[in-house]
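SAMPLE LOG
Freezer: B-3
Tube label: C17
Construct: single chain, 89 aa
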Amino acid sequence: MEISGIYHKETENNDRPMSMRRFLLVRERDLTGVSGTGIVAEGAEFTSGLAVLRWLREPYAVGVFQSVADLIAIHGHEGATQIHFLDQA
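STRUCTURE (predicted):
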Protein backbone atom coordinates (compact mmCIF):
# COMPACT_ATOMS: atom_id res chain seq x y z
CA MET A 1 0.00 0.00 0.00
CA GLU A 2 1.43 3.39 -0.99
CA ILE A 3 1.18 5.86 1.89
CA SER A 4 4.17 8.12 1.30
CA GLY A 5 1.95 10.99 0.14
CA ILE A 6 -0.17 11.01 3.28
CA TYR A 7 2.37 12.81 5.47
CA HIS A 8 3.88 15.03 2.78
CA LYS A 9 1.86 18.19 2.62
CA GLU A 10 2.76 21.81 2.18
CA THR A 11 2.33 24.04 5.18
CA GLU A 12 2.07 27.80 5.46
CA ASN A 13 4.33 27.82 8.54
CA ASN A 14 8.00 27.12 7.80
CA ASP A 15 8.50 25.97 11.41
CA ARG A 16 6.36 22.91 10.75
CA PRO A 17 7.84 19.76 9.27
CA MET A 18 6.82 18.68 5.78
CA SER A 19 6.41 15.13 7.10
CA MET A 20 6.18 13.38 10.44
CA ARG A 21 9.67 12.94 11.95
CA ARG A 22 10.97 10.67 14.68
CA PHE A 23 13.58 11.94 17.12
CA LEU A 24 15.71 11.02 20.11
CA LEU A 25 16.23 13.25 23.13
CA VAL A 26 19.93 13.07 24.01
CA ARG A 27 21.14 14.51 27.29
CA GLU A 28 24.79 15.39 27.93
CA ARG A 29 24.25 16.45 31.56
CA ASP A 30 21.34 15.67 33.86
CA LEU A 31 20.81 18.76 36.01
CA THR A 32 18.04 17.13 38.07
CA GLY A 33 19.58 13.68 38.57
CA VAL A 34 16.34 12.03 37.43
CA SER A 35 16.56 10.99 33.78
CA GLY A 36 20.27 10.31 33.40
CA THR A 37 22.43 10.99 30.37
CA GLY A 38 22.65 9.65 26.82
CA ILE A 39 19.47 8.78 24.93
CA VAL A 40 16.78 9.43 27.54
CA ALA A 41 13.61 9.65 25.41
CA GLU A 42 12.17 9.04 21.96
CA GLY A 43 9.49 10.96 20.18
CA ALA A 44 7.78 12.18 17.08
CA GLU A 45 7.06 15.58 15.57
CA PHE A 46 3.83 15.65 13.58
CA THR A 47 3.08 17.76 10.51
CA SER A 48 1.02 20.09 12.70
CA GLY A 49 4.17 20.85 14.72
CA LEU A 50 2.87 18.90 17.74
CA ALA A 51 5.57 16.84 19.48
CA VAL A 52 5.11 13.69 21.55
CA LEU A 53 7.84 12.41 23.86
CA ARG A 54 8.19 9.04 25.63
CA TRP A 55 10.81 8.64 28.35
CA LEU A 56 12.98 5.52 28.20
CA ARG A 57 13.39 5.22 31.97
CA GLU A 58 10.83 4.61 34.69
CA PRO A 59 8.11 5.71 34.99
CA TYR A 60 8.12 5.75 31.15
CA ALA A 61 5.91 8.83 31.05
CA VAL A 62 4.54 10.35 27.84
CA GLY A 63 4.34 14.09 27.20
CA VAL A 64 2.60 16.11 24.51
CA PHE A 65 3.90 19.54 23.51
CA GLN A 66 2.71 22.18 21.04
CA SER A 67 6.16 22.16 19.38
CA VAL A 68 9.67 20.78 19.66
CA ALA A 69 10.71 24.27 20.80
CA ASP A 70 8.26 24.02 23.72
CA LEU A 71 9.60 20.56 24.57
CA ILE A 72 13.18 21.87 24.65
CA ALA A 73 12.13 24.92 26.68
CA ILE A 74 10.90 22.52 29.37
CA HIS A 75 13.35 19.61 29.11
CA GLY A 76 16.42 21.22 27.55
CA HIS A 77 18.38 21.45 30.80
CA GLU A 78 19.95 24.78 29.87
CA GLY A 79 21.42 23.50 26.60
CA ALA A 80 22.51 20.11 27.97
CA THR A 81 19.86 18.28 25.93
CA GLN A 82 19.66 17.92 22.15
CA ILE A 83 17.03 16.70 19.71
CA HIS A 84 18.43 14.26 17.13
CA PHE A 85 15.99 13.72 14.26
CA LEU A 86 16.03 10.25 12.73
CA ASP A 87 14.04 11.28 9.66
CA GLN A 88 14.56 14.03 7.08
CA ALA A 89 12.32 17.09 7.16
